[in-house]
Design goal:
globular; 45 strands; Methylamine Dehydrogenase, Chain H
Length: 680
């Protein structure tokens, strides 16, 4: 048995608190010699072998958010008050409007924060992952998920966070004052999600059993049972929620709840003030403005494309169409299959049949060649048997179902059909009401040949693919469409304001010109740009050739893409606005900060150690941030957080902040940086 480090009483197995003095039992202690973390119960350090008698607990308590020197307490009360105001202005924030002074990360299986001005660190949680098996690797993998677990009011006075992980989606909810050294206030356990008001004077939370509560930091009020999701207003006084039975309610605290509707599947769109809700009931699209009856906007809706704050909506309607397979398949292998016979497997030579070893090896070499020919011939014969199955079963009467939709646009008052025979949409603009879509083009549908069929079971998929790949492309802006005439179009990117479209298209050979196409990976596309004015598209402008992919920034002024990509190394040449920026840039490490217009990326990636060199481009020059970087995040104010010298065995590294061309160390043994979650 282990003993309590405070009163020396023996502890029961897995005890978290001493039954004698009530002291918390640390999960680990620090070796006084090698400073390694060692599980409680070891007499000798498993790393250096020294006795653990003088070991001290690993820090598992909250550090004071304000580490004020005792000498300061001798200053007058008014001066202290003034000092506290200054400190409050630089306190930690997350999910707040002003995000000037916080860092947020995971260390020792706990949530940590730090003041990026003075780099003082603060342990937020106490026993974040005590009751479940969550190691550093899982902490790293779920960093984005964990980043939603701390929320701080706009005035930075109230901190809410989830602690004591019970399962991957159940925690205990805590609240504390940012300027207080008191222990946090436990609000509830078994919490799956929560929202706070802007002022931080109330919180709503959903428990694992579906119970929805509202808490004003003094008393709680149960609002509903069997809730699946909810929204809360900025002042915390209004909630929208949906139950497992499909019933939705609008509830103003202190008043009777108002039923929105029944048989709902989800909130498709909720306005910023929670006064307007769009939702689907089966395939019927409704709009509900509080205080008024729900309005049916459209029926037979198959898929919502985009609902905008303006009330404009794009959506797909329609039914599946059944076509005859025989009309889209051509048997070009009938004669060849009639003469193809089952190949005979060659017999391997026996050493006893040959006088010398040299003759046997020569015979075996011939056998090896014959086996290669046999395997190739047998593969062709097996494909023949699949085609024969298809012929015997017959294509006549076999049907395939394909989607055929109407693209509709609702302008806020009425619905209009934008296009018929729509296959689907390729992309949409985030802010201005615009969508790129495709329609069937029967005149260009090629038949699937028997020589392309490897299995009788995949013929339907091949026909379906042939039908949907033979299409025309259009862009619709506020319900008015223009054709995008670019053969071989592969990928479409449209910016937020819908005035620029970028297209990756199969490279075409110009008349009288010998075309050089890179065969590595997918670097065989031409990159085009189209300007859109109103709903009219301009002329196609070719930007570059042999392009691998384009990065969608949803930004008016910049476009970024890769060329000469080595798919094995997952790196290539990075271009911005048609200009080559750098070679050997690691894919999926490029990040663009719209606030500062800085572009960050990593080069010279080492697969073995999982690190590279982090660089920043400000539109004028390239600056190296650091070597040996494992991962990084850009803060809303432009600073860069990065993990340096990261161990892929222990999943720990050193956390640094880069600001004004200088790097400063924040902490050691950091598992993951938690990305910023913008408050919606």
């Amino acid at each position: 048995m282990s003993i309590c480090l405070k009163c020396k009483r023996e502890l029961e197995e897995d005890a978290k608190f001493c039954s004698e003095c009530g002291a918390k039992v640390p999960r680990s202690v620090m070796c006084p010699y090698c400073k390694k973390k060692v599980n409680v119960g070891f007499e000798f350090c498993p790393y250096c072998g020294m006795e653990m008698a003088s070991a001290v607990p690993q820090i598992k308590h909250h550090k004071s958010l304000f580490n004020i020197d005792r000498k300061i307490l001798k200053i007058g009360s008014s001066a202290v008050a003034a000092l506290l105001v200054i400190v409050l202005l630089t306190s930690f924030i997350l999910n707040a409007v002003s995000k000037d002074n916080y860092l947020f990360y995971i260390k020792h299986e706990e949530l940590f924060s730090a003041n990026k001005q003075n780099l003082k660190t603060w342990q937020v949680s106490e026993y974040f992952a005590d009751s479940v098996e969550v190691d550093n690797q899982k902490m790293k993998n779920y960093a984005s998920y964990f980043s939603q677990h701390v929320k701080i009011s706009e005035d930075k006075k109230n901190i809410f966070y989830l602690d004591r992980l019970e399962s991957m989606n159940k925690f205990s909810l805590y609240h504390r004052k940012a300027d207080s050294k008191k222990e946090p206030n436990k609000i509830a356990k078994d919490v799956t999600m929560f929202e706070i008001s802007n002022k931080g004077d109330c919180v709503s939370y959903l428990r694992g059993d579906g119970a929805l509560y509202w808490h004003d930091l003094e008393d709680r009020k149960k609002l509903a049972s069997n809730v699946t999701t909810f929204h809360m207003s900025e002042d915390g006084k209004t909630l929208l929620y949906l139950t497992q039975d499909g019933e939705a309610y609008h509830h103003i605290i202190g008043k009777e709840k108002q039923k929105i509707d029944s048989e709902m599947t989800s909130f498709s769109f909720v306005s910023h003030d929670l006064n307007t809700v769009y939702y689907l009931k089966m395939s019927d699209l409704y709009k509900k403005t509080m205080g008024k009856e729900p309005v049916l906007l459209s029926s037979d809706v198959r898929q919502l494309v985009r609902i905008y704050e303006s009330g404009e909506i794009y959506y797909l309607k329609g039914t599946d169409v059944v076509v005859n397979l025989q009309d889209y398949v051509e048997d070009d292998m009938l004669e060849e299959d009639a003469t193809m016979e089952n190949p005979e497997m060659p017999t391997p030579p026996l050493p006893s049949d040959y006088e010398t070893q040299e003759k046997y090896q020569a015979a075996y070499a011939e056998y090896t060649k014959a086996m290669e020919v046999y395997q190739q011939t047998m593969a062709k014969y097996l494909y023949k048997t699949e085609r024969e199955k298809l012929r015997e079963s017959g294509l006549e009467g076999r049907m395939v179902t394909i989607p055929e939709n109407q693209l509709c646009f609702f302008d806020g008052k009425k619905e209009q059909v934008v296009a018929e025979r729509v296959i689907g949409y390729k992309n949409y603009a985030e802010e201005n009401a615009a969508v790129i879509y495709s329609t069937y083009s029967d005149s260009e549908v090629r038949k699937v040949k028997f020589s392309e069929i490897q299995s009788s079971y995949n013929v339907e998929n091949m026909v379906r693919e042939a039908l949907t790949s033979s299409c025309n492309y259009y862009v619709s802006v506020k319900g008015k469409s223009s054709e995008i005439n670019q053969p071989g179009a592969h990928l479409f990117v449209i910016n937020a304001q819908a005035d620029h479209i970028y297209i990756l298209a199969e490279k075409t050979e110009e008349p009288g010109e010998e075309t050089t196409v890179e065969t590595s990976g997918m670097s065989r596309f031409d990159l085009y740009q189209i300007k859109v004015s109103g709903h009219k598209v301009g002329k196609l402008k070719k930007i570059d050739s042999n392009v691998y992919s384009i990065i969608n920034l949803m930004d008016n002024d910049h476009y970024i893409y890769y060329k000469k990509v080595d798919e094995q190394k997952q790196s290539g040449d990075l271009y911005i606005d048609g200009k080559k920026l750098e070679s050997d840039v690691r894919l999926n490490t490029v990040k663009f900060d719209k606030n500062t217009e800085n572009l960050c990326y990593m080069v010279d990636w080492e697969d073995k150690d999982q690190y590279g060199t982090l660089k920043k481009y400000d539109g004028d020059k390239i600056v190296k941030v650091s070597d040996e970087v494992y991962s990084y995040e850009i803060l809303p104010t432009g600073e860069i957080l990065y993990l340096y010298d990261y161990s892929i065995d222990s999943y720990e590294g050193e956390l640094y902040i880069y600001k004004k061309s200088k790097s400063r160390k924040v902490d050691d043994d950091v598992v993951a940086i938690l990305p910023v979650q913008e408050k919606q």
